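Comment thread on ticket #2218

A.B. wrote:
> Attaching the input chain for the structure job we discussed in standup.
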Amino acid sequence: MERSVMRIGVIEGATRPGSNTSVVTRWVLDHAPEGVEVVHLPLTEHVLPLFDWEKHPMAAGRQYPSEAIQAWADAVNDCDGFVFVVPEYNHGVPGGLKNAIDWLGSELWGKASAFVGVGADGGTRAVEQLRLVLANFNQFTIRSQVSLSIFRDIADGKVQASDQKNKDLAGLYQELTATVAQLKG
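C.D. wrote:
> Ran it. Output below, let me know if you need it in another format.
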């Protein structure tokens, strides 16, 4: 049965305890638009082994080799679109996030994603790398993104977003939900 409410998964892309990504993810979740179901998908709750499977996930028929991987794939599959909250580690995508994506196949296919970058310079390099990875899944990635600096936009365990950053996030959600609606057609 088709859901009547759009479901957006907010993928928290860090596995490190106490990460600024958790703070930013809370901000993203708290600013979700009305009329949309937003699901928190923290990688800390989806602990996955390193990808070493002999099968290609796209050819696995959505049947995975462990309960943890199956639960992750099912959670992603149940979403209509995504906001990736992406920390930048050493100018790139964190290994845990890339590994979690490597375990997926059709669950991401043809869906839309938006990005909130987190890092010294707003996570822009990690977001650009992630766009390339998601192109493999025929993803429609939203061009605009929100970039938060760990030095300027986060303090005392909270996002200290300017009015412009809050507007940017609202616009990101608006563009994402409009795109998801178009893709679901």
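A.B. wrote:
> Thanks. Noting for the ticket: The first strand starts at residue 6 and ends at 12.
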